[in-house]
Write a structure and sequence with these properties.
The structure is a homodimer of 120-residue chains. By secondary structure, the first copy, chain A, is mainly α. The first copy, chain A, is built from five helices and no strands. Chain A is elongated. At the A-B interface, helix 1 and helix 2 of A face helix 1 and helix 2 of B.
Chain lengths: 120, 120
């Protein structure tokens, strides 16, 4: 058995350089999204006036955590969809993904377009 | 049947003036505790440096909400224990409770002492 053969059909293999590009782009997008949540949390906290604002902040944080956990799934079998979503949301740029193989970029763009149509 | 007779044995009735005193003391303690949580939330939010600080804040808020929900139970059948705990925690003063009947103050002090011994 060829140890380099990927066991699942239709799931692209990731070369070492592609993995490096993916990791960098993924971490950058996650870092930016977390930074946004931090800024929004500080803004909301500074404006707390009554107890309902406290529990609104709690709810906001819970939702952010769940949504980030779902979105940032670093499994190679999921990664083209993950980047597709990040591209659709403007959280990753095509520049950051350059260096990935053409078939992957195509899958990523195609999922981004699917989400854009779905939202329309 | 006497409509003023309280249906449960050993549970004191609350006169109109006692209810007013209880409500004021209860709301004041709750307001102070919520104010503390607001201040602590603002302090923590201002010091967020990394994502784990976000989820620590979320956890802190969840725990506060649950604990406050449990503690501030305004049922007359529970109120002497509620004030006993608030007295033990220093969240209500004997002054704020003055005007309650002697047997209630005794129950309140007795539960506060029980909690103090339990914690020791």
């Amino acid at each position: 058995m060829n140890p380099n053969a990927y066991p699942y059909k239709n799931e692209p293999t990731w070369s070492r350089s592609e993995k490096a590009i993916a990791r960098t782009a993924f971490d950058a997008a996650l870092g930016r999204e977390l930074h946004e949540v931090v800024q929004e949390t500080k803004r909301r906290a500074s404006q707390i006036r009554q107890s309902s604002d406290l529990w609104d902040l709690e709810h906001y944080l819970t939702e952010c955590r769940k949504q980030i956990d779902r979105k940032y799934d670093y499994r190679y079998s999921r990664l083209t969809d993950v980047f597709g979503r990040l591209l659709y949301e403007g959280r990753v740029s095509e520049d950051e993904l350059s260096g990935l193989r053409g078939d992957k970029l195509e899958s990523i763009r195609s999922f981004a377009e699917f989400l854009a149509k779905d939202a329309a």
